[in-house]
Design goal:
The chain has 224 residues and is an alpha+beta fold. The protein has a single domain, classed as L,D-transpeptidase catalytic domain-like, CATH 2.40.440.10. It contains three helices and 13 strands, in the order ααββββββββββββαβ. A hairpin with an 8-residue loop joins strand 7 and strand 8. The longest helix has 16 residues, at 5-20. The termini are far apart.
Length: 224
């Protein structure tokens, strides 16, 4: 038997895996940029993360959305790949009203929707006529019931069909710093090929995201 350098290296790696129980996460898609491979490797061994949502910004308001599920051997299985839309002025949010989607890696808080819960295990709030996402300084970037908060103003959620048929709140600006940006969601796409700062995908995929969502999910929004 002839042992080449390549086969010898393979045997050594295999031996290390056998002896020390090392699990190697293999990127789901060959040829992805180093940033995306690095994110997959970083979270493969993080037991607090079991879903990754990638928003790969392509320019203007276009992006590619990909959802991955972590498998038992700490590799990633692709569940969804579809067109997505981000802010009308791209990504890199700085302040309220700049029409940009935040750049970075974020968690989620809860889901909500005008339609009934499609089967998610996330906390799901059914939208009614009283719910607002507040722009008011005293309860900025909070979901508020107008029956309990007189004078509240902001996004009247029930008016946004089909965008808020299903949505998940991205945990951007968790300190609720006034004017830093609010109401940043992953939601259904509408008639426009852009958002005012959220991430939008077709409704059928949004439902699938919700059905596969967990509390240990991260969304990563960066240039492709």
């Amino acid at each position: 038997m002839i042992i080449t350098k390549k086969s010898a290296l393979f045997l050594i790696v295999t031996l290390f895996i056998f002896l020390f129980g090392i699990k190697i996460a293999i990127p789901a898609c060959a040829g992805e940029s180093p940033r995306w491979d690095s994110l997959m490797e970083r979270y493969a061994l993080d037991q607090d993360v079991d879903r990754l949502l990638f928003v790969k910004y392509k320019g203007k308001s276009g992006a590619r959305f990909i959802m991955y599920k972590k498998t038992e051997d700490n590799s990633w299985k692709k569940l969804i790949s579809c067109q997505a839309y981000v802010g009308r002025k791209g990504i890199g949010k700085r302040k309220e009203g700049d029409k940009k989607t935040p750049t970075g890696t974020f968690g989620f808080t809860h889901a909500f929707g005008i339609r009934k819960n499609p089967g998610t295990t996330l906390r799901y709030i059914r939208v009614n006529q009283y719910l607002y996402w507040s722009l008011r300084k005293k309860d900025y970037n909070h979901l508020v019931d107008s029956r309990k908060a007189k004078g509240v103003y902001g996004e009247h959620l029930i008016r946004y069909r089909p965008q808020y048929n299903y949505a998940i709140n991205i945990d951007y600006n968790p300190e609720n710093i006034y004017n830093k940006g609010s109401a940043i969601f992953l939601h259904c796409s509408g008639s426009h090929k852009y958002t005012l700062g959220c991430v939008a995908i077709p409704e059928k995929y949004m439902k699938k995201v919700l059905k596969n969502a967990t509390k240990n999910m991260k969304i990563c929004i960066y240039h492709r």
